[in-house]
Amino acid sequence: MYQHIVLAADGSANALRAAKEAVKIARLSANTVVNIVYVASFDNARAEHLHSASSESLLLERRRKVATVEQLLKEHHISYKVTILKGEPAPKIIQYANDNQVDLVIIGSRGLNGLQEMVLGSVSHKVMKRVNCPALIVK
Predict the structure, then answer these.
(1) How far is CA 13 from the centre of its chain?
(2) Residue 23, phi then psi, degrees to nearest 5
(3) Which pairing describes strands 135-138 and 33-40: parallel, antiparallel, or unpaired?
(4) What b-and-e string marks burial along 86-108, b requiring 16 or more CB atoms within 10 Å of the CB?
(5) pLDDT tens digit string along 113-138?
(6) Looking at the DSSP assignment, which residues form a beta bridge with residue 137?
(7) What is the pLDDT of residues 5-46, one digit of tens each?
(8) What's the maximum distance between 2 C-alpha atoms anywhere in the chain?
(9) Which of 1, 76, 99, 80 lies closest to 37, judged by CA?
């Protein structure tokens, strides 16, 4: 089954729904590791740096955004790790998944309608089109 799952998380309700699906899949194999990937986008990173007292508080704030997902994985005894990346979310998730021999990427959908997705391009849509492994988008 899937040994290495990347779960993209940003602190949203969609990310939590994606985490619940990750739990279902990860429970199928005792050897599965879920890697929670949080990407601090350039726009958010600038604001976070201005408002943080130190680099430690900045890291704690970013970890807080994935704390609910971490708690869910802990409750279900799922092995996991957290990776925090900086940059644009879609390209960073794609690069991470393609560079680390990931078996499955799970990501929440923003729920955009077709026109908005075509014009703007959602993170989940970009990830799904460009990763070299299966991808699951959770609504």
Answers:
(1) 12
(2) -60, -45
(3) unpaired
(4) eeebbebbbebbeeeebbbbbbb
(5) 455 455 445 899 999 999 999 999 99
(6) 107
(7) 999 998 888 899 999 999 999 999 999 999 999 998 755 555
(8) 43
(9) 80
Range of the domain at 94: 4-138
Q: Is the dihedral of CA 117, 119, 122, 128 positive or negative?
A: positive
Q: How many domains does the chain have?
A: 1
Kindly report the CATH number assigned to the domain that includes residue 83. 3.40.50.620
Report the candidate in 4, 113, 104, 66 with the shortest Cα–Cα distance to residue 127: 104
Distances (CA, A) of 11 to 7, 98, 114: 12, 23, 24
Question: Which residue matches tokens 């194999």?
Answer: 29
Tokens matching residue 117: 């997705």
Does the pTM of the predicted model rise above 0.90? no
Beta strands in 3-122 (DSSP E): 4-8, 33-40, 79-86, 104-108
**Average pLDDT of the residues of the chain:** 85
- The Cα–Cα gap between 70 and 64 comes to 9
Helix (H, G, I), strand (E, B) or coil at 138: strand
Q: Quote the DSSP letter at residue 66.
A: T
